[in-house]
Amino acid sequence: MQKKTHDAAMLAEAATAEADRWRSRDLAVLWHPCTQMREHPHTLPLLPIERGEGPWLIGRDGRRYLDAISSWWTNLFGHAEPRIAAAIARQATTLEHVILAGCSHAPAVELAERLLAIAPREVDREPLAKVFYADNGSAGVEVALKMAFHWFRNRGVEGRTKFIALEGGYHGETLGALAVGDIPLYRRVYAPLLAEALFAPSPDAYLCEPGETPAQRAQRAADALRDLLERHADEVCALILEPRVQCAGGMRMHDPLYLKLVRQLCDAHGVFLICDEIAVGFGRTGTLFASEQSGVQPDLLCLSKGLTGGALPLAAVLATQSIYDGFLDDSREKAFLHSHSYTGNPLACAAALATLGIFASDDVIARNRTTAARMAGLAAAFADHPQVADVRQAGMIVAFELTRGGDKRTPFNPDARIGLRAYRAALERGVLLRPLGDVLYWMPPYCVDDDALQLLASTTHAAIDHAIKEAACA
Fold first, then answer.
1. Which residues carry this modification: N6-(pyridoxal phosphate)lysine (predicted)?
2. How far apart are CA 355 and CA 191, in angstroms?
3. Does 70 belong to an annotated binding site?
4. Per the annotation, does 341 bind a ligand?
5. Deepest in the core among 59, 79, 383, 414, taking most CB within 10 A?
6. What was the pLDDT predicted at 4?
7. What's the CATH class of domain 86-361?
8. How big is the CA angle at 33 (ends 171 and 307), to the nearest 5 degrees?
9. Are 396 and 375 in contact (CB under 8 A)?
10. What are the Cα distances from residue 379, in Å, to 255, 390, 398?
């Protein structure tokens, strides 16, 4: 027994040393995204991950972490999903990549056909009919913005050069995407480089006045949007929003009525509607696409993240035939000359086709409803937590708004770093929660089971308590 204990201790020590070596190698050469690198490795833990299994990430030290945020909202069916891996492997033996300008290949064509077949559709509205590929979500947003502006220009309309976006929205971090984002942490530094956008009030239900329902809040936000459009309609080419949930803005959720009203306003003023479903698409909010809950079809639909099940980077922008036709001309200046070297990469398209195949074979949406109900039951206990001002849910997304004394009017001082403290405490308990400020959220892979959800709930509760106590003692 003593020898086994000694051997286990030696193995654990060796694994810890191996992880430390990788941390040192990493920090010597890598610049990580969305990170103040000065905080690594002491303030902000750095996790050397060796492999993934279902909803779990396994570190080089052997520690297991529940991936409660689906690796930045990309992973749908769990890490190393064998059907997606097999599809990528098969494609890699045939064609790994080919230029999509002047060439074609089966995965790109078949994926476009299948995306158009499942895209949101409104009766008596021209359907989405063409697919343009990009490499990631930000690039997809850039494509949609450029298409909307360029379409009007091709028609000889010079004045429609602005976009309307929502306060608190986020659409990526390239300059075009940042221009229609409204999160100061990302936007402020680059503001001098950004095109001018107009921002409409968010329909965020968290901002409801006392006695106001989410639907009434949505109506009030739509009324403000109407006023904005009436003042600027001749300057605006498109409105862009995230349906149902403003994700990076703090998992802000709104009533589906809002998108229905927005669709009507865009039609009335001749403005394109761009739905950014990069994070909320593919089942995250309870339906395949979040815009379905409003019965709305956009003019341009941006998809990425879960499109490949989280396996490879790929984005797709779906457009109507009328938008496509607006670029057909003898002049190359009227062509849409946007490009990426890896546009329509066959490996990524194969992963996406496998992802859609899983939706078709596994009845994912129905299974998610059952999982979401379990998540709701576990989240309900947080409503009485003294530091939780709001518990909100949209399908497979649950968010907890932490404030001082649970009062919406008194957020924590940002210097207290409540979210960061909770993040570290959760890691110690084997759960990866990456907060948005002082908003903790659950967005796990769809394969998460009851035991993992129980761990997620108990860890979140303990992490909140630990963060509050630690901040009080600091």
1. 305
2. 37
3. no
4. yes
5. 79
6. 66
7. alpha beta
8. 50
9. yes
10. 20, 11, 8
pLDDT of 13: 86
Is 71 marked within a binding site?
no
In this structure, are residues 147 and 235 in contact, taking their beta carbons and an 8 Å threshold? no
CB 130 within 8 A of CB 119: no
Can you tell me which residue has the tokens 């021209």? 126
Strands (E), 242-307: 245-246, 252-253, 272-276, 300-303
Q: Was 331 annotated as part of a binding site?
A: no
Is 291 annotated as a binding-site member?
Answer: no
In this prediction the pTM is 0.96
Closest C-alpha to 319, from 330, 327, 311: 327
Give the orientation angle of helix 106-118 with respect to helix 346-362, to 10 degrees.
40
Beta strands in 136-212 (DSSP E): 162-166, 197-200
Three-state DSSP at 25 gives helix
- Given a cut of 50, the residues of the chain with pLDDT beneath it are none
CB 118 within 8 A of CB 365: no
pLDDT value at position 125?
97
Please indicate if the annotation marks 466 as binding a ligand.
no
Residue 168 backbone zone (phi > 0: left; psi -120 to 50: alpha; other: beta):
left
pLDDT tens, position by position, 99-123: 999 999 999 999 999 999 999 999 9
Helices vs strands, H then E, count in the chain: 14, 16
The CATH code that applies to domain 47-80+364-473 is 3.90.1150.10
170 belongs to an annotated ligand binding site: yes
> Using CA atoms, how far apart are residues 444 and 267, in angstroms rounded to an integer?
36
Q: Which residues contact 184 (CB under 8 A, 6 or more apart)?
A: none
Record the tokens describing residue 171, joined without a space: 């659409």
**What residues does CATH 3.40.640.10 cover in the chain?**
86-361
Over the chain, what is the mean pLDDT? 96
For residue 1, what pLDDT is reported? 62
List every span in the chain annotated with CATH 3.90.1150.10.
47-80+364-473
Cα of 262 vs its chain's centroid, Å: 21
pLDDT at 12: 79
Q: Whole-angstrom Cα distance, residue 63 to residue 15? A: 9
How far is residue 422's CA from residue 463's CA, in Å, rounded to a whole number? Answer: 5
